[in-house]
Amino acid sequence: MMRLLVAMLAIAGWVTSAAAQNISLLNVSYDPTRELYADFNKAFAAKYKAETGTTVAIKASHGGSGRQARSVIDGLSADVVTLALAYDIDAIADKGLLSKDWQQKLPQNSSPYTSTIVLLVRAGNPKKIKDWDDLVRPDVKVITPNPKTSGGARWNYLAAWGYAAKKYGSEDKAKEFVKNIFKNVPVLDTGARGSTITFVERGVGDVFISWENEAFLAINELGKDKFEIVIPSVSILAEPPVAVIDKVVDKKGTRAAAEAYLNYLYSKEGQDIAGKHYYRPRDPEVAKKYENIFPKLSLLTINDDFGGWRAAQKKHFDDKGVFDEIYSQ
Amino acid sequence: MDRRRNRRRRSVIPGFGITLGLTLTWLALIVLIPLGGLFLKTAELSPSEFWSIVTGTRALNALKISFGLSLVAAAVNLFFGALVGWALVRYEFPGKRLVDAIIDVPFALPTAVAGIALTTLFAENGWLGGLLAPFGIKVAFTPLGILIALIFIGLPFVVRTLQPVLEDLDTEIEEAAATLGASRWQTITKVIAPIVLPSLWTGFALAFARAVGEYGSVIFIAGNLPNISEIAPLLIVIRLEEFKYADATAIAVVMLLASFVILFAINRLQRWSATRTGHA
């Protein structure tokens, strides 16, 4: 009897210590970060193992940013989310899964790396596209994902809007401008990756409004001499944010690892991995290393120029917002 | 009374009470409770809210596209599915088994794979799309593309419901008709059609129902432009992305009711054609 008890205790001890030694994290992310996190997860797991002796298995889930946020709301137990825009994490916070001031918890608006929106054109730039103005020309076909289903596409839309608002100085003109761009859109894919494929593989369209990192990826992975990046005169600072999902990590007991995971994004190594994958590093020193890759641009920001994501979402992308107006006539 | 007892004794599966109970429980768990949840979510909306959601221009257009193209696709499948079924049952040719197996591919293939494959094929730089482009025919990213995806996924339904009926239909019946002096046309309309029509209607209904709910294969080839090539299931997904669950379920409820009405009508048609010809 005694022996049995000892054996059981030993097993229990072994089980709990094994649990302490092996944890798993789920990072729920959006479409164009697949390559970035594949790399980053490896680096983090190695570092965490070296520092704490704990093995972390990191699982990553990718998809449209809004859909990913909804999965988390509906119960996908993500330890951390790394999404395309703050609004999607706000939506999760609204359901009480993390505190509403989540964006103040990490430096730089909780966005360890940034990106921007650029124009990808076919080699030689046959349609002579130089700036946003060319996208409203009737002879130009524009590829962008649907802002309703793709977080990235909302940055695209706002970049164009911001340019027009700045240039023409009126809301009505900006609306007209954006409407004319979407008149030239023959395909609205549901996610950024889908649009990349439509433009790159299917050969549809003359210009692809794209995240900078996705444009670099298209050039490097899919066709070195087939595409060129055109830098518009005005674009937007895309800040994809990251956050720990409090409810989940407290329940699973993974808070320490989850926080270390996100903090590692801000470290020199983390920043370097982001730079390698064509995300603009926040760290000035690391950014210097990549400065010849990323052109300097006049960048609008969501907070200064659009009053934050909640306001932008409500005005432009909610039901019966400006985007719906564009398509309702 | 005597006959009934007799039938009961001959039944292989015992316990009518138990089997019916299990059937209803299973049906409730798998079908009725989820559907109930759908209606419950919609009940959050007031009737006027519900009405304005489902009669908005965009929702109406999406429903029109989904139901309209599904009916056309099912009709195309009715014709070509019948043709394929007939060829497979009546004739021997090399590779017949392979063709027979290929019919089932749309059943088993993940729909997204089907969508991506069809899009690759029909895009302007694809094999088929490239041939059609000089004639000004665009398939990928137009409603025509949606139609082709819906035809693709619906094909097996007509073939597979028709096949067993055709196999039961001996050639002797046609020969008998011929010896009694029937023309070919009379043989088809008076002898063959009455037997196969009910199963054709069933295949049509199944192909149609599948097409209405299809999402995966369509969104890749559709172009997804609001009011032009946006299917109702995509609009439901869009509403969900806006975190508007009730709006999404409202459209879903309309689709469900409309499908039910149409399937019910097809069912009546099927019965009518069966009783009219005495092959109930």
State the gist of this model:
The complex is a heterodimer of chains A (329) and B (280). Helices cover 50% and strands 17% of the residues of chain A.
Give your account of this protein's structure.
The complex is a heterodimer of chains A (329) and B (280). Chain A has 15 helices and 12 strands. With 329 residues, chain A is of the alpha/beta class. Chain A folds into 2 domains: 117 residues, D-Maltodextrin-Binding Protein, domain 2, CATH 3.40.190; 156 residues, Periplasmic binding protein-like II (D-Maltodextrin-Binding Protein, domain 2, 3-Layer(aba) Sandwich), CATH 3.40.190. In chain A, the strands form 2 sheets. In chain A, strands 4, 5, 6, 7, 8, 9, 11 and 12 form an 8-stranded mixed β-sheet that branches. The N and C termini of chain A lie far apart (81 Å). The model of chain A has no long low-confidence stretch (mean pLDDT 90). Chain B is an all-alpha fold. Chain B is 79% helix and 0% strand. Chain B is built from 14 helices and no strands. Chain B starts with a helix and ends with a helix. The model of chain B has no long low-confidence stretch (mean pLDDT 89). Classes of the chains: A alpha/beta (329), B mainly alpha (280). The interface between A and B is medium-sized, with 27 and 27 residues.
